[in-house]
Amino acid sequence: MAYFKTMTTETVDKGKKNAVIMGRKTWESIPAKYRPLEGRLNIILSKSMKILCSQRTKGCAILCDSLQEGLSKLADNSRSIESVWVIGGSSLYEECIVSPLCHRVYLTEIKKKFECDVFFPDIPENFHLVKWVPNLFIQFHIHLSIEIKFI
Question: Mind listing the UniProt keywords for this protein, alphabetically (predicted)?
């Protein structure tokens, strides 16, 4: 999680912050004590969470009905936002990866088989693989006997 936090939090312009966009299930998968994700503007996309709006979060989170509404809210904050990170779930990834606004995919390969029912969508052919190892993770990391590779 340190890699994720660093990537989605650090900015070149220290007067700005990044935004993370996520679906309701991704939001709910984050332990309550870590919501909203600190140091980032959190955009939560949900049509069913409106009831929770008044008691939704402490801190910096915006609830929106759609990706378009979320992007509109970010446009309103464009002077204070440096980068936008889409952090899940599956249908949001599917919507964003075909968008002309999506410029990069930061992919982490986990070399272990898991039972899953949801998968990341195929990456379009117009994306080019650039092998990259972040400075803070110079080598493969092995955690709980799981090899993790940053691509």
Answer: NADP, One-carbon metabolism, Oxidoreductase
What's the token pair of residue 68? 């378009």
Query: For the segment 68-87, what is each residue's pLDDT rounded down to a tens digit?
Result: 999 999 998 889 999 999 99
- For residue 18, what are the β-bridge partners? 40
CA distance 43 to 59: 12
The yes/no answer on whether domain 2-150 falls in CATH 3.40.430.10 is yes
**For 96-125, what is the HEC assignment?**
HHCCCCCCCCCCEEEECCCCCCCCCCCCCC
Residues 56, 103: Cα–Cα separation, whole Å: 31
Domain residue spans of the chain: 2-150
Question: How sure is the predictor about 140, in pLDDT bands with cuts at 50, 70 and 90?
Answer: very low
